[in-house]
Write a structure and sequence with these properties.
Layout (H helix, E strand, L loop, with lengths): L4 H19 L5 H45 L8
Helix pairs in contact: 1-2
Length: about 80
């Protein structure tokens, strides 16, 4: 998982803020980047895959709606499905 430099800056600040606010600890920029890299490499694929599964579910729902709409406008013929 790759982040732009701007994204990394924002995420690093959030990591540092979390450590400061929730754990009463200070974490330097280098350590925050190291932690970000660890999570991106080791944990990121789980979030990424979950996003894919969620997107596939949305597409499945939309395709079902489209299929239903097509069947509604289908003209009758002598052939039956």
């Amino acid at each position: 998982m790759k982040f732009s430099e701007q994204e990394k800056e924002v995420i690093v600040k959030k990591i540092q803020g979390y450590f400061r606010d929730e754990l009463d600890q200070t974490i330097g920029g280098f350590d925050a980047i190291f932690l970000l890299d660890f999570f991106a490499e080791e944990i990121g694929p789980y979030f990424y895959n979950r996003g894919l599964y969620d997107a596939a579910a949305v597409l499945d729902d939309k395709m079902e709606t489209i299929t239903d709409a097509i069947l509604e406008i289908e003209k009758p013929t002598e052939l039956h499905r």
